[in-house]
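Q: What changes when zinc ion is included in the input?
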Amino acid sequence: MLGEADRSKLRNLAAKAAEHAYAPYSRFRVGAALLLEDGTVITGCNVENCSYRLTSCAEQVAVARAVAELGPGIRLRAVAVANLNGATSMPCGACRQTLAEFGDDATLILYPGVGGGAMETTLGELLPSAFRAAYLEENTKIFPPETDVDQLPPWGPADSDATKKR
Ligand SMILES: [Zn+2]
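A: The predicted holo structure follows.
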């Protein structure tokens, strides 16, 4: 279990990261702090774009940064999010899926509640029945790794079960 002091520290690091947010459009400055299984903390902030849809959330920036710095084996123990707007906020739907790639149902999520209260939940609560990498294994039965995808018709191999069902 993560102690109260460590939770508080992680929340503060997320808030500190939010100070670097690039949020000229929404003015919603968000920070995230990831506590990895090895004890490393990696932070991120939101980075907006004038096209709006290319905006990166703080959690996604932090995850990308963690992978870039430490490699693909990172695992999330806890994630704190914070904002400098005094608003309640928790990871958006897209970020929940991003976090699920490197966390599990027990990954602790710390977030600000209404009025700035220190709230917490788990990734499993935020994203029940997450899409998992294991589901892709079904796909590899239809498209074995040795399949030359350039030779496939757009609807898949002619003798696959998936094709027969169509
Ligand atoms: Zn998000």
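Observations recorded in class: The two ends are 49 Å apart (CA to CA).
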